[in-house]
Amino acid sequence: MTSGKGPLRVESGRKSPFLESALSLRLQAQNLACERDDRWLFRGLDLDIRAGEIVRVEGPNGSGKTTLLKILSGQLADYEGELYWDERPMRQARESFLSNLLYMGHAPGVKAALTPLENLAWYQAMAGQPRDEAARFAALEDVGLAGFEDLPAGQLSAGQQRRVALARLVLTPRPLWVLDEPFTAIDRDGVGALEQRLVEHARRGGCVLVTTHHELTPCAELRRIRLGGGGVDVGN
Amino acid sequence: MWAFINKLRSPKWFYAISARLQPWFWAAALLLIGTGTIWGLAFAPADYQQGNSFRIIYVHVPAAFLAQSIFVSMAITGLVFMVWKIKICDMAAAMMAPLGAAMTFIALFSGAVWGVPTWGTWWMWDARLTSMLILLFLYLGVIALRGAFTSRDSASRAASVLAMVGVINIPIIKYSVDWWYTLHQPATFTITGRAAMPMEMWAPLLIMVLGFYSFFIALTLTRVRSEILRRESNKHWVRELAGETR
Amino acid sequence: MSATDGSLSGGDMSVGHVEPQGGLTVAFCATLKRDLVLMLRRRSEVMNPLVFFAIVITLFPIGISPDPQLLAAIAPGLLWVAALLAALLSLDSLFRADYDDGSLEQLLLTPQPLALLTLAKVAVHWLLTGLPLALMAPLLGIMLALPAGSYLVLALSLALGTASLSLIGAIGAALTVGLSRGGVLLSLLVLPLYIPVLIFGAGAVQAAILGDGIMAHLAILGALLSLALCLAPWAIAASLRISING
């Protein structure tokens, strides 16, 4: 908790909005294994994910990427091995972990019958944030949805609906992002902007765990984990 | 306690220990059911009211006992499976469900047959029969839910939750049905009345009940053993075992 | 923990630290409000169970007999069974939309206890299904020649009873939400569990017609509701966690 304070400041070179969390932002997995219906998706997985990293989980279809992300985001308790958040076992740290997590799954989690503003209002409340309409407008503008705030999300394109979900990244400051295929349905400009946002988040002391078919531009923050064939290849 | 639970985690251990246990239960089941049947059908005195038709009690009551006990065991094994992730317990729950449904059906069927000489009809909305019928629906629900999932792990968990929800509801259902029955048909003759039974009548009944329980345990052990082999067929120890016996 | 960054990172730290109180209430109310708005935007879905209720009640005089005396005798049971089925009808969609669009995952990932948040969804189901059915039942009671003096009890017992039905039914809905064709299975799972509520609900109306005391029935319905309120949310939460990974 005390170590890492100095280097982090030097590295990022600017004041991190996640500073306090970033000091203890650390997600570890020890000897993680997941068996689904008598088949090992992966086993013997050791992970140490820290502030300032973008970790891309790679692997062929069916290699357990989504399952790993669900385990690491605390949705799936059906695994062997140990998970630690802030160097505490996940079971004890669950509430603190969830308060620091922003997860986006395959489905964007956007209600078609509600407007983007209303969708974000729910997320704001669920995150324990005060009601703040200006912040919601700003977040939507940030993801390129200015002018679409009051249309039912069902009338938006798939890419725009995905952008509504992505607005949460702006709206709710959380240090740990777990994103399952966030680039789905996003146009090329949007992909570039999102990629930039991930790097920016890591540089500010956040931490990103992502699966994607889209090839990320190599950068200092990027790290890869490869799943597949029951074995695990952890590279840096 | 902990040591036992940890041992249960190993299907291999269970496979070995059940190999030693199951002959005893099969033998006990055979002996008890055989004795009970002969005693109950041939030697026990006839009922002064119902005559010989009362002898169906020797099937009806043990089956009804078992039907309820199996549901409770299913909920308990489900709970143990959910809490400690012990696969043996889930296998046991999965194997017990059809047996429990069968026992419920036997209890219902024997009750209906019994109804012919007693009430002159195949079906009466008797409190016990109605509760049994609802229990059968609960069993069918658990079996159907387990079958509906493509992932077996999810199926196991869902069936465990449903069994636990069911077991909390069974007493509530039972009492409300009893209450409903007394309201609508006060003081009719129930087939398994609580009238004092002479020893010559209830001794074979007791033996039959014990025999049915032994049968239940023996059959569950045998079925769980084959389920272990099926689920663990890609494990090393099962392959070794298959090599030995071949 | 120092507060150096308090101004910048309002929600970064665990919500427990930042906002020890209010988090759950805010999340609960937000979910309640969102679901109410969603349902009110699709009014036909709110209307469907009510129309179904009316149609089913219409079928009975046609199928049995228009004789008011006969209808009056079976009206309490008919109204209760039809309302129960109507409430069941809308149950399948309780979690399905959330499951499909991914907001169920998000609900599961809030630091607030899931069991209590699901109560918000159940409350919306009751408010827009059970309560309207209860209010509509007296109207249909007139059509079935329900004896005077039992109308208030009919509405009251339905209002109380459907709350339990929503809670119990939500367990089934949560268990089957991951299955593509869960609708029929859902009925199979929850209908047996509905029986106690049906017995005391219809019993209350019957008692009112006969001029007996109704407080006992309503008290038992209340007891069933409190039991369901205590236990069902945990079962719903556990079932949702299973289904999300099915």
Automatic annotation (TrEMBL), chain B:
It comes from Billgrantia campisalis. Residues 13-184 form the Cytochrome c assembly protein domain. This is Heme exporter protein C. Required for the export of heme to the periplasm for the biogenesis of c-type cytochromes. Belongs to the CcmC/CycZ/HelC family. The chain crosses the membrane at residues 21-44, 56-84, 96-117, 129-149, 161-181, 201-221. It comes from the Bacteria. Keywords: Cell inner membrane, Cell membrane, Cytochrome c-type biogenesis, Membrane, Transmembrane, Transmembrane helix, Transport. The gene is ccmC. It is found in: Cell inner membrane; Membrane. Its main location: membrane. InterPro entries: Cyt_c_assembly, Cyt_c_biogenesis_CcmC, Cyt_c_biogenesis_CcsA/CcmC. It is a multi-pass membrane protein.
Automatic annotation (TrEMBL), chain C:
It is a multi-pass membrane protein. The chain crosses the membrane at residues 46-64, 70-91, 126-146, 152-177, 184-209, 215-240. Keywords: Cell inner membrane, Cell membrane, Cytochrome c-type biogenesis, Membrane, Transmembrane, Transmembrane helix, Transport. It is found in: Cell inner membrane. InterPro entries: Cyt_c_biogenesis_CcmB (IPR003544), Cyt_c_CcmB_bac (IPR026031). Required for the export of heme to the periplasm for the biogenesis of c-type cytochromes. PANTHER family: CYTOCHROME C BIOGENESIS B-RELATED (PTHR30070:SF1), HEME EXPORTER PROTEIN B (PTHR30070). Belongs to the CcmB/CycW/HelB family. This is Heme exporter protein B.
